[in-house]
Amino acid sequence: MLRLIAAMIVSCACIYSASAFAVQTTEASWYGLKYHGKRTASGEKFDVRAMTAAHPTLPLGSVVEVRHGRKSVMVRINDRCGRCGIDLSPAAADRLGMRHLGRASVTVRPLA
Question: Which of 8, 11, 12, 88 could form an SS bridge with 92, CB 3.0 to 4.6 Å?
């Protein structure tokens, strides 16, 4: 019985966390090149050429659209960041045209 109750609580928490995150306007930064090859929170190695990002609360493996001005990119969340809105790989920051800025205002929309 306790297992059933625990499973129901976890199910509700997962549904709530996915539905609670809608479109978010936040500040984006990008990972420094020194992190290339280091392990991420998901356990995979960080690749500066991959379309990935770190987010403080979205589930690992989530796919989001990040928009800066008229440009957008789809990234997979594979790491955590502490005080950031979203931390992009250098490749994703390049595609958005914001890498030279260091930080930029972006819109984050979950896709999957």
Answer: 88
Return the domain boundaries, the chain: 22-110
Token look-up 């979950």 returns 110
Q: Is the pLDDT of residue 4 over 50?
A: no
Please spell the DSSP secondary structure of 87-108, one letter per residue.
EE-HHHHHHHT-GGGS-EEEEE
Residue 65 has pLDDT above 60, yes or no: yes
Asked if residue 75 lies in contact with residue 52, where contact means CB atoms within 8 angstroms, the answer is yes
Domain 22-110 has CATH 2.40.40.10: yes
pLDDT band at 61 (very low <50, low <70, confident <90, very high): very high
SS3 category, 52: strand
The residue type found at 62 is: S
Place of tokens 């809105």: 85
Which among 110, 106, 69, 61 has a CA at the least distance from the CA of 86? 106
Question: What pLDDT is recorded for position 104?
Answer: 95
User: How large is the C-alpha radius of gyration of the chain?
Assistant: 15
